[in-house]
Amino acid sequence: MTANRKNSREIVEAGLARRRRKEATFRATGMLATAVGVIFLGVFFGTLVMQGASAFKQTFIKLDVEMSESVLAPDGDLDLAYADFDGLVRDALRRGFPAVSGRKERRELYRLVSVAAGYQLRDELTSDPSLLGSTITIWVPASSNVDMLVKGNIDPAIDESLRPISDAQAGWIESLQQADRLETRFNKALFTNGDSREPELAGIKGALMGSFYMLVVTVALAFPIGVAAAIYLEEFAPRSRWSDLIEVNINNLAAVPSIVFGLLGLAVFINWMALPRSAPLVGGLVLSLLTLPVIIIASRAAIQAVPPSIREAALSLGASKMQVVFHHVLPLALPGMLTGTIIGMSRALGESAPLLMIGMVAFIVDVPGGFTDPATALPVQVYLWADSPERAFAERTSAAIIVLLGFLLIMNLAAVIIRKRMERKW
Amino acid sequence: MQNLTLILLLAAMAGGAFYAGRRRSFAVVGGPAHGAQLHSLPGYYGYFTLIWCLLPALGLFFVWVLLEPKVIVALIVQSLPDPQRMVSEGELNLLVNNIRNLAAGDAISGDADAVMRDAAERYNEYLAASRRVLATLTLGIAGLGGAIALRRIRPEFRARNRVEQVVLYLLIAASSIAILTTIGIVLSVLFEAIRFFREVSLTEFLFGLTWSPQTAIRADQVGSSGSFGAVPLFTGTLLITTIAMVVAVPVGLMTAIYLAEYSSSRVRAVAKPLLEILAGIPTVVYGFFAALTVAPWVRTAGEAIGLEVASESALAAGLVMGIMIIPLVSSLSDDAIHAVPTAMRDGALGLGSTRSETMIKVILPAALPGIVGGILLAVSRAIGETMIVVMAAGLAANLTANPFEAVTTVTVQIVTLLVGDQEFDSAKTLAAFALGLVLFVVTLCLNVIGLMFVRKYREQYE
Asked: Which pLDDT value is given to residue B459?
């Protein structure tokens, strides 16, 4: 008996070291797995900020432009829409670098500044016609290649034929820098312009407005419908096959791939109802169908959290079922519903696959001014820019992503704050 | 009249109806002092009038706005001279589009002739007439409805019950929108898919080995015979999904185990929200990261060990997709692990097993159905994921199991077939809907089974 007990103890002790080792390995694997996600997050944000931060700055070049009448109005009358402002820019550059001669060299010189310089001069003259004939000093945006060189994204050490900036151009840029005629400033164009083929002119305002209009439609439809559906299912629906069906259905809809909602939007809203393509209205409709399950599920949870004693008290005082719901349950469940709605909206803001289906990927320069104007959305803009070959667009894509993530962060923080502030413990 | 103005006018009328109804309820009993003689609270008489004023008018408005374009186009087409009407459907659509653009004063393709200008003018006339009739009818019905409601107000009239009945119907309508969405998805995908299968046989689509979706404009064109064998797409999807699951399942599961069993509450408080951030990042951002950062890494790493890696390899897309799915797997596994009764865990620990033994031999087997359900949901998510593969996986339909080659997926093909200019009737466009049908059916099955597992299992221990 004693021998036997000792024996089993020995067996246990013999295996102990191995078991402890196994335990340590298991634990280390778990730690590693957790670290994988966290490390990825770090690498992800690190590269994003490293790539994108520079897009918030843009290189500007100082020019002394003579608003000469002979260039702008060669035959005497000035037509602002057709006047040759680019000629003024070219004159100014030539005067800045008198040594440059030859067609090829001059053309390279002209490529230092963005095509936006001409528009900027036109705006100046439009706002102050008395400038005609005088010489003004003005900061104009540099072209995207110059911008990339200044920011160090183009390596001047590699072979000339492999980079978009020639040695001569690099030399001019250096002399501009030495003369304090070159500066990097905050890139306002990124937030005030629509899309453009020129990276230095491309901005996200069009996409932001598109996303805004879409979210307005989505909130206006999905919130009331979602809350109403949740109220019915929680408070009124008899336990029947029908309500079971709706319940299963909603849970499934929440897991249907978003691109399928895009197909629905294309077939129903665009082909059948003949609503306009690329419009925030259609995008909003699709996104509201997409977020509806999220809102319904969150709202039902919020209604369930209201204690039955509240309902019973109201009923016992003679309120009708409808009055109980709308006067007591709904106000108490509202914070939870709002939180769910905001989270649904943040999902909608990041969604792009269904929008591709309904034509919101077009190249649209104008900032949309309404619900039926052609528009694109912020995540779709990210997709479009990520496809562009120019180096400068990669930088702007990261910047657009930073802005997008910023909005998502704000929305999620708002949700957390609402939950913390208004949550009630019963 | 602009539609927005009309809506605002209707809203104003509805507000007026509410106050009129309320005042009328006081009037029928002879002043607020006698309010107790009313059956319902005065506000309910107001709401009752409002509903009568607003609902019929709004219903008419929406039906009208929905049908208006179709009716006007039909009228225009009928009024066109015969030579223009006797063209193919596509040309007719183009003509109608041009007329519409001309009417709106936009640029049109081709030159405008007298017939089109006439038609455009008529289009504008019809539109203006339709708007006038709509405005008169809507406002008329609103006024009439309000007046009828006002006449029905009596002290013994059960306004509250009527209003609540209407509200209940509205709630039911709202909750059936979820059903309508599903029906809409099924019908829209199914109809177009059936049209596709009229041109391409089901067996060719499901078992064909080459995918090159183009349709000929002329019969003698090079490569005129498009082939719609979707097997390469299915295998491509499967390959990327497998890579994603190979990353996501072990990592997600071990994360859940570590956070549930080993980590201090401080680590948990930091790691859990961080993982939730991972779940909240838009997929297009993952796609950008996969295409511009991970794919070059994979390529350089592969070349360093002497492998030939395509620049749009399945591996890069699969890896990033796996990382995207980690939070889903870990949170569903976490739920499953926490649902196992503590008594089982305590029992195993009390018998002297280590924590890893408890986990592997007791908790995981007990939590297995929940975990499997979660993994099925994750697979469905990976199959339906679009943006990562659109940006990081290729377009070429290679039939391969090599993760270093470029493959394409069902979702990528849906996007490429439907983005850009398209003819709505060609087999190419319809093929996207057939793929959509497959995608919907497969994910639906996975979701139903997954949710069933998760639910059944939860009930077992509750």
From this structure: 66
CA distance A387 to A378: 14
Comparing alpha-carbon positions, the chain B residue that sits nearest to A394 is B292
ipTM: 0.88
Among chain B residues, the shortest Cα distance to A229 is held by: B175
- Torsion angles phi and psi, residue B317, rounded to 5: -60, -45
* pLDDT digits 0-9 by tens, A50-85: 888 888 888 898 888 888 877 777 777 777 777 788
Contacting residues of B for A374, CB less than 8 Å apart: none
Which residues on chain A are in Cβ contact (under 8 Å) with B281? 44, 350, 405
- Long-range (24+ apart) CB contacts under 8 A made by A175-178 are A175/A97, A176/A61, A176/A112, A177/A150
Please list every residue in chain B whose beta carbon sits closer than 8 Å to the beta carbon of residue A255: 377, 380-381, 443, 447, 450-451
What H or E segment, with its residue span, contains residue A48?
helix A2-52
Q: CATH number of the domain at B227-461, please?
A: 1.10.3720.10
Q: pLDDT of B222-269, one tens digit each?
A: 555 577 888 889 999 999 999 999 999 999 999 999 998 888 889 988
Tell me whether B391 touches chain A (CB under 8 Å). yes
**pLDDT, greater one: B194 or B214:** B194
- Shared domain for A39 and A176, answered yes or no, is no
Q: Where are the domains of chain B?
A: 3-157, 227-461
Residue A197 placed within a domain: no
Same domain, A148 and A274: no
CB contact under 8 A, A405 and B414: no
Quick one: A9 and A39 in the same domain?
yes
Please check whether residues A170 and A74 belong to one and the same domain: yes
Question: Which B residues in the span 174-213 are in contact with A, Cβ-Cβ below 8 Å?
Answer: 174-179, 181-182, 184-185, 188-189, 191-192
- Final residue in a domain of this structure, among A132, A158, A192: A192
| Residue B184, CA distances (Å) to A218, A269, B178, B376 in order | 18, 11, 10, 25
Distance of CA B385 to the CA centre of its chain: 13
User: Binning pLDDT at 50, 70 and 90, where does residue B85 land?
Assistant: low
- For chain A, what is the domain count? 3
pLDDT score recorded for residue A55: 86
Alpha helices in A237-307 (DSSP H): 241-253, 258-264, 280-304
Verify that A49 and A72 share a domain, yes or no: no
CATH number, domain of A273, equals 1.10.3720.10
Neighboring chain A residues of B244 at a CB cutoff of 8 Å: none
Q: What is the pLDDT of residue B107?
A: 64
- Residue A61: which domain range? 56-192
Which residue among B253, B352, B443 places its CB closest to the CB of A256? Answer: B443
